[in-house]
Amino acid sequence: MIGSVRGRIASKTPPQVMVDVGGVGYELEAPMSTFFHLPAVGAEVSLLTHLVVREDAHVLYAFATEGERRLFRSLIKVSGVGPKIALALLSGISVEAFSRCVVNEDITALTKVPGIGRKTAERLVIEMRDRLGDPGVPAGAGVAAIPVGASPETEAYGALIALGYRPAEATRLLKAAGPGTHSTEELIRLALQGANRS
């Protein structure tokens, strides 16, 4: 299994990127969430990968964050959801937003992603809900992983999940903390104060 690649970007043609690693060009497919943050052609890049072996091809998928790769791996285990649909989901919705959609059973939001019909969205909610609520998953290991360089709101949300709050509750607490330019630490403190009052 190829877990990551580090090298120079040789070409970018969404959703494909070619990374030159010591003279060997690796063709990767990446979700738009990763693609939009890639540096220019010729620049160095380090990407996490997942290899999918099919009868007719070996396809290497690339991700900027562990959260994206973890969600991709969970999605392709869902009946009727292959790598193509998983890539579309990651391109159309963030890891945190997907987690909230599953917890809140927001079928409508999921069907707005290209290629996701109502039946697929319902199946995703049913199957992924069990995985999100799995008590055997260590804190912070769910799909709501914190991406590198995340906003204070995203980091605070991830921290609340790691503390054991349900995604819907974490979202409610952060909304109650109010708008403003708070640091991650301030947001967490305000959210926890709100939790203690409720």
Description:
With 198 residues, the protein is α+β, with helices and mostly antiparallel strands. The chain has three domains: 4-63, Nucleic acid-binding proteins (OB fold (Dihydrolipoamide Acetyltransferase, E2P), Beta Barrel); 66-132, 5' to 3' exonuclease, C-terminal subdomain (DNA polymerase, domain 1, Orthogonal Bundle), CATH 1.10.150; 152-197, Ubiquitin-associated (UBA) domain (Helicase, Ruva Protein, domain 3). Helices cover 44% and strands 19% of the residues. The protein has nine helices and five strands, in the order E-E-E-H-E-E-H-H-H-H-H-H-H-H. It has helices at residues 32-35, 66-75, 83-92, 95-103, 107-111, 118-132, 152-162, 167-176, 184-197; strands spanning 4-13, 16-21, 24-29, 44-53, 58-63. It has a five-stranded mixed beta barrel with strand order 1-2-3-5-4. A hairpin with a 4-residue loop joins strand 4 (44-53) and strand 5 (58-63). Helix 7 (152-162) crosses helix 8, helix 7 crosses helix 9 (184-197) and helix 8 (167-176) packs across helix 9. The chain is globular, with a radius of gyration of 18 Å. Residues 134-149 have low confidence and may be disordered.
